[in-house]
Specification:
Elements: H1 2-6, H2 13-39, H3 43-71, E1 82-83, E2 86-87, H4 94-126, H5 137-149, H6 152-170, H7 174-201, H8 206-214, H9 223-236, H10 243-248, H11 257-277, H12 280-285, H13 296-306, H14 311-345, H15 349-370, H16 385-413, H17 415-421, H18 425-450
Antiparallel strand pairs: 1-2
Helix pairs in contact: 2-7, 2-11, 2-14, 3-8, 3-9, 3-11, 3-16, 3-18, 4-6, 4-14, 4-15, 4-16, 5-13, 6-14, 6-15, 7-11, 7-14, 9-18, 13-14, 14-15, 15-16, 16-18
InterPro entries: Na/ntran_symport, SNS_sf, YocR/YhdH-like
Transmembrane segments: 12-31, 43-63, 94-118, 152-170, 182-201, 221-245, 266-289, 309-339, 351-371, 391-413, 434-450
Main location: membrane
């Protein structure tokens, strides 16, 4: 009971929603979503994404909220205690440990992406990347190769700087650190996003990009594409690695979980869709292909900015937006591991933060950077170290952990899960049976399609 009585709570509902929104926005909405839209038929992908948010996103947010708030403890012990008068077998805590391993995996490469973005901002401010005149595909490709792929120690330095920013915020705690920073960071993100959207939709020829983005090509809609979209929803909402379980463990018992889950799903969808509006109109306006994949943001968009009036300024704003989005997410993923370390080992918060960030930096971030250069010959199942962290965290650990949480709610918590949800009887029964019988099938389809 000590963890529950000493545990902080969010100051208010808005603070919690803003923090969860920050946790679920990140690179999933601002980097990954746009390039996947470009690769998979524009509007078709957008339409399926919105549908998938309803089919799997919001129900799974509620699953993790119920698990997290029930015990108000870390993401490991959240799978313990009693349910329906019986002690829950300790083997269920394996799900919590799997979530922590997945969180380690995503932070191992996620923080490096933050380092890439900081490198771009630094290069723009110093003129190393000059967008005052139109540049070519070759120019941006060469810059990416020289400043990212073949510049390991600079990227390690930028990644370390990004880690330090996280450290200084995290050491202040849940309320004074994460909540207070997100209170300022999320409005900044929205302002930057709106500025970029307004600038890009008013460009000559922007309507062609908007048409590509919003008009679905139904021939592109296939069962396989829907499975891919479902996987993106898991990535976008930070499902399966303990983030929402941890954040909801600080949630007041009187809070309406259905309302907060719905708002979370809507905000994530809106921001992801807005991210497309700040990218595709400009791509089509300047004749840049939208299907360049993961390098869309780093190689294709600088070409667009170089052809735009005030392009350098807007490029700095855009990459600043990416840093803010990455920061609001990384803080909450780190918190999953930090909270678990604190409560499982009785370690002080400052030491838990130092150990978490330090170990991930040494064993995850540095290998991820070196894996594209000095350690290029080191592969894991044919993948570079960076890609291996991405693949195994996103396609194995997160999906299996999410499957386990749905089964845990449906077959272990049972009536206790319904009571924790605290919604109307009809809605609760529909949600519970859907999570118990349908969601596991959907997750298994995602899993076997991704491996």
């Amino acid at each position: 009971m000590s963890n529950q009585t000493e545990r902080q709570s969010w100051s208010n509902r808005l603070a919690y929603i803003m923090t969860v929104a920050g946790a679920t926005v990140g690179f999933g909405a601002t980097w990954r979503f746009p390039y996947l839209v470009g690769q998979h038929g524009g509007g078709a992908y957008v339409a399926l994404f919105c549908l998938a948010m309803i089919v799997i996103g919001i129900p799974m947010i509620l699953v993790e909220n119920v698990i997290g708030r029930r015990m108000r403890v870390n993401a490991i012990d959240a799978f313990g205690g009693q349910a329906n008068g019986k002690k829950i077998h300790r083997a269920w805590k394996i799900l919590g440990y799997m979530g922590l391993v997945g969180a380690f995996g995503i932070l191992a490469y996620y923080m490096v992406l933050g380092g890439w973005v900081l490198n771009y901002i630094g290069s723009l401010l110093t003129g190393a990347l000059d967008l005052s005149q139109p540049v070519t595909v070759e120019t941006t490709a060469n810059f990416y190769k020289e400043s990212i792929q073949h510049n390991s120690w600079a990227i390690i330095g930028y990644t370390g700087l990004f880690v330090l920013v996280n450290f200084f915020i995290l050491e202040k705690g849940i309320v004074d650190g994460i909540e207070r920073s997100v209170k300022y960071l999320m409005p900044i993100l929205f302002i930057f996003l709106i500025v970029m959207v307004i600038r890009n939709v008013t460009l000559p020829g922007a309507m062609e990009g908007i048409r590509f983005y919003l008009m679905p090509d139904f021939s592109k809609i296939t069962p396989q594409l829907f499975v891919f979209v479902l996987g993106q929803v898991f990535f976008a909402l930070s499902l399966g690695f303990g983030v929402l379980i941890t954040l909801s463990s600080y949630l007041d018992k009187g809070e309406n979980l259905v309302r907060t889950a719905t708002i979370t799903g809507i905000m994530n969808t809106v921001i992801a869709v807005l991210a497309g509006f700040m990218i595709f109109p400009s791509l089509f306006s300047f004749g840049v292909a939208p299907d360049s994949g993961p390098t869309l943001v780093f190689q294709s968009l600088p070409i667009v900015f170089s052809n735009m009036w005030g392009g350098t300024v807007f490029a700095v704003i855009f990459f600043g937006l990416l840093v803010v989005a990455a920061l609001t997410t990384s803080l909450t993923i780190y918190e999953v591991i930090i909270t678990s370390l604190q409560e499982k080992t009785k370690m002080s918060r400052k030491w838990a933060i130092a150990v978490t960030l330090g170990v991930i930096f040494l064993l995850g971030n540095i290998p991820s950077v070196l894996g594209d250069n000095e350690w290029k010959s080191v592969t894991i199942m044919g993948k570079s170290i960076f890609d291996a962290f991405d693949y195994f965290s996103g396609n194995v650990f997160f999906v299996l952990t999410a499957l386990g949480t749905a089964i845990f709610v449906g077959f272990v918590l049972k009536d206790e899960a319904k009571e924790e949800l605290g919604a109307g009887k009809t809605f609760t029964n529909i949600w519970f049976n859907y999570v118990k019988y349908i969601v596991p099938i959907i997750i298994l389809v995602i899993f076997f399609s991704s491996i």
